[in-house]
Design a protein that fits this description.
Chain lengths: 529, 381
């Protein structure tokens, strides 16, 4: 999706809102369902029907899980403790199979559509070792937009039902709405059933505060996307696509700009989506919380794409950590290792699985597997040496999160994240290695003095706009860190402030936005997942 | 240092996400306490909201109008931010002095020479050509032409009908063109980078006249080395995309309303020559009742020599080719479309004669430079 697609989306959302408000409260959810179906069909064409299959697996599986739970609750009455235990074991087994069936069903759609060629690419070289020269042919399958998001959402729902966190939805269409709520369709955030579904179905009245809050958030999102991200993209694209032609300073500048581009692109689009949902009185989960203020990479990932991180934590990390083999491993580690390592080892194994999953979620490519491993390794090594840092801080009496040490920790995190971003953007691992080698080996001061950096699609005025935009975001971020949500304060504030901010944002977007005949459309990065 | 345990590195807990929000305020609930403060002059909340909404949109409108004015080019020159300035210098021509208007893409601004037509027949014409122009854009150009001119004949160069864009891209481009036309700030906003602050307070005054009247003058010779007879792009079932057809029909309607005679012309261009496409245009022209003058075929009366009359291996004509096409078209329009000489009209002729002198000077300059370049190249060999 490009900026004009988002404009179209905003206009569509306003029309849907108008229709939504015309319906009786009780049936307003049907408008959202219809809008989701239309939007999904418009985006994806016939492959949009996969969302039905995904919701179908979740519906059948969750319904059966709730039936089993109810049956168990009924049957366990009047039983002795041992009988109850045996009954519970039996039902737990059945529930596991039911949940597994639903998860495998939903996941298989994603795996086939998104990952089959990746797996074929890995299998074919192995087959050739055994003399099979032809190999498995690659498939040409259309990937519906947003499938990675709604599949995780559906799986989360099945697991929540399995765990008894929520009861299965009886109405298939209400579940379908949860899986296909249109503002989330392209880039998430990945919501939990308990958080989102009741909001979607209960019906909301018009509220001025929600409307202006939503519109302000949408404008802020457009500001990030059109003014900063798209403007930063031109130099980043030029240098990343021709990295062998550039020296250290151009490569570093492009890496920084790409990091800015990705952050403002993704968080800007999430703001547009959240603002849209907000106009309907619906709050989507937070997806970003000033990630570049993080003191460690671990903290960064708790602030960046939060909904994905929490999904992996709740549904993969905990599931793996609490599984029987891992409990056994934990016990064995406790018996043979010291306390620190005994705690670290099993959780690190679970974390490894989480990061492999996170990497692969981003794309069907070995690059993304290594991308996940990169972050795992940093966190694992960080965990290993952390006690030393804690001891040093205690001995010399400094706070690792404040003052110079805090600033150094933030700078180190940003540096590690930028390296991760280079890998994320590079076409392949080889390109990534060459890019890093270029930074180290091609020091060319002429790039600084000869104005080369200003001739790569981003000139001085562009840098000024990007810089000023970044400063604005920094101020808003600092205030949010200190407990003041500027945008919400504006939405609740007096009318002259509200209007000034809204009109000001519109003016800034119109004048300083990177759109129009001089700019090509820039596709949204995270919509590709 | 990184965190001590892996569980710490795992992402933040789900419960930190915002809780479902119940609507804070019911719709239109009057507040008697609040209202009592204004007792005697109470307005219903809906009216207050309506007035506020209107005020907001009035302010928004004023702001949009102001921004549009600030970034509007104040003169029709490149320096003043006018895109494709030479295509729009018709703005600077005195009202109703252009009898033949030609609209098209790069083929048009390369193949037509208004000054040759002036010199030979006393015809006043202007060629508004833009690279990769699409038909919907031609329509918006026509709208702009009609603000100041009412030509007797409109020539639409047909290479624009088959653009390089896919149907989806074309629809997208059409939407863009219409948006830019409706609200020019959308294409002019980038002028903040190099705009003179004094321009902010000026009113638009398009007074920059060009002597070439939109022609791209190039005397460069870069011959086509193949066999022109073999050049023909075979297109299975050629089609006109709906925006093309829709806006061609609109152009025809506008011409009918204004009493302008419309003619479709295909100029020689080896790169896009296609018997199939040209047949489609002919069918379309018959359908809407206009003439299609095809000058792009072997042995056409224009008699283009692809060794000497092209500046880029058969894609575009140079000034020599343009002269041939213009002389043929000029005569054709005089014979069949009632175009008359303006040489006796003193108010027009003096300015156009001066323009022709400058045109001749430029031609001679370019021809000389080309000759020198050829000599130097031969010495080099």
């Amino acid at each position: 999706m490009t900026y004009d697609s988002y404009l179209f989306f905003a206009a569509y959302a306003l029309i849907v809102l108008g229709i939504y408000l015309l319906f009786p409260l009780k049936y307003r959810w049907t408008v959202l369902l219809g809008a989701g179906a239309l939007f999904c069909g418009f985006l994806n064409g016939p492959v949009a029907l996969w969302v039905l299959a995904c919701a179908g697996f979740a519906y059948v599986s969750a319904r059966h899980l709730t039936t089993l739970q109810d049956r168990f609750a009924k049957e366990k009455k009047d039983l002795s403790k041992d009988e109850r235990k045996a009954l519970k074991a039996r039902y737990t087994r059945r529930k596991k199979w039911t949940a597994a069936g639903g998860i495998v069903g939903a996941l298989s759609i994603l795996l086939v559509l998104k990952y089959c060629n990746f797996f074929i690419g890995q299998i074919n070289p192995l087959l050739s070792l055994f003399g099979v020269t032809e190999g498995i042919p690659f498939l040409s399958l259309a990937l519906p937009m947003g499938i990675s998001y709604y599949t995780l959402q559906a799986i989360g729902y099945i697991i929540d039902t399995y765990r008894g966190v929520c009861r299965a939805e009886k109405n298939f269409f209400k579940l379908l709405l949860f899986v296909s709520f249109f503002p989330q369709m392209t880039e998430g955030p990945i919501a939990r059933y308990g958080q989102l579904a009741p909001q979607l179905t209960e019906g909301h009245r018009y509220s001025n505060e929600n409307f202006t809050g939503g519109v302000t958030l949408i404008l802020w999102g457009f500001f990030k996307k059109i003014v900063i991200s798209d403007r930063a993209s031109f130099m980043a694209s030029e240098v990343f696509d021709n990295s062998a032609s550039y020296g250290t300073f151009a490569l570093i500048t492009a890496a920084v700009l790409y990091t800015v581009q990705l952050y403002t692109d993704f968080s800007g689009c999430i703001d547009i989506m959240s603002g849209t949902a907000r106009m309907f009185g619906i709050r989507l989960p937070e997806n970003f919380r000033q990630p570049f203020f993080s003191h460690s990479v671990g903290e960064f990932w708790r602030r960046w794409h939060i909904s994905l991180g929490t999904w992996f934590k709740d549904y993969v990390f905990y599931s793996v950590s609490l599984s029987a083999p891992f409990m056994k491993l934990s016990k064995a580690a406790s018996a043979k290792l010291n306390k620190f390592l005994a705690a670290l080892l099993p959780s690190s194994c679970a974390l490894l699985i989480v990061w492999l999953g996170t990497g692969l979620w981003h794309g069907a490519d070995m690059k993304y597997v290594v991308y996940g491993l990169y972050y795992f390794l940093i966190m694992f090594l960080g965990s290993l040496v952390d006690p030393l840092g804690a001891k040093a801080a205690q001995k010399w009496g400094f706070d690792r999160k404040k003052g110079v040490f805090g600033a150094l920790a933030v700078a180190r995190t940003i540096l590690l994240v930028i390296i991760g971003m280079i890998m994320f953007r590079a076409g392949s691992l080889e390109e990534f290695a060459n890019y890093l080698w270029g930074i180290v080996s091609r020091v060319n001061y002429g790039e600084l003095t000869g104005g080369v950096l200003l001739c790569l699609g981003t000139d001085t005025p562009d840098f000024i706009v990007i810089g000023a935009g970044a400063v604005m975001m920094l101020i808003v971020g600092i205030m949010k860190e200190r407990g003041t949500d500027v945008l919400q304060t504006v939405a609740k504030g007096p009318i002259y402030i509200k209007w000034s901010v809204m009109l000001g944002l519109i003016a800034v977007i119109l004048v300083f936005g990177a759109y129009g005949p001089n700019y090509g459309p820039v596709d949204n990065i995270y919509a590709q997942f | 240092m990184e965190e001590t345990t892996a569980s710490k590195t795992a992402p933040a807990p789900a419960e930190e996400s915002p809780k479902p929000e119940k609507d804070s305020k019911p719709e239109e609930t009057p507040n008697p306490e609040k209202d009592s403060r204004h007792s005697g002059r109470k307005l219903p909340p809906l009216v207050i909201k309506g007035v506020r909404g209107v005020c907001f949109f009035v302010l928004l409108g004023l702001m949009l109008f102001g921004l549009n004015h600030v970034y509007l080019p104040k003169n029709n020159t490149k320096e003043n931010g006018m895109r494709n300035a030479s295509a729009f210098s018709f703005y600077a021509e005195p009202a109703n002095t252009i009898d033949t208007m030609i609209i098209g893409n790069s083929d048009a601004y390369s193949a037509f020479s208004p000054m040759e037509m002036w010199n030979a027949y006393g015809m006043t014409s202007y060629v508004s050509g833009q690279g990769h122009l699409i038909v919907p854009e031609s329509y918006t150009v026509l709208e702009q032409v009609l603000q100041n001119q009412t030509p007797k004949v409109l020539v639409v160069e047909t290479d624009t009908i088959f653009s390089k864009y896919t149907k989806q891209e074309l629809e997208h481009k059409t939407a863009e063109v219409l948006l830019y036309r409706a609200y020019p700030l959308l294409q002019n906003h980038d002028r903040w980078k190099n705009m003179d602050i004094a321009e902010v307070f000026q009113l638009p005054d398009y007074h920059y006249r060009t002597y070439a009247k939109g022609q791209y003058m190039s005397c460069k010779v870069d011959p086509y080395k193949g066999d022109p007879k073999k050049k023909n792009k075979v297109i299975q079932n050629p089609e006109m995309d709906w925006p093309v057809k829709f806006y061609l029909n609109r152009i025809k309607e506008v011409c009918d309303e204004k009493g302008i005679k419309l003619i479709l012309v295909r100029v020689p261009c080896l790169k896009t020559r296609s018997v199939d496409n040209q047949a489609l245009i002919r069918r379309y022209a018959d359908e809407i009742g206009v003439e299609f003058l095809d000058l792009d075929y072997e042995n056409s009366p224009v008699n283009i020599n692809w060794k000497t009359d092209t500046r880029d291996k058969g894609t575009h004509l140079n000034c020599y080719g343009a002269k041939k096409v213009s002389l043929y078209l000029g005569q054709y329009l005089m014979d069949h479309y009632g175009i008359v000489s303006r040489k006796d009209d003193a108010s027009v002729a003096s300015a156009w004669n001066k323009d022709y002198e400058r045109y001749q000077e430029e031609l001679e300059k370019q021809a000389k430079a080309e000759e020198q370049a050829r000599v130097l190249a031969n010495i080099g060999k």
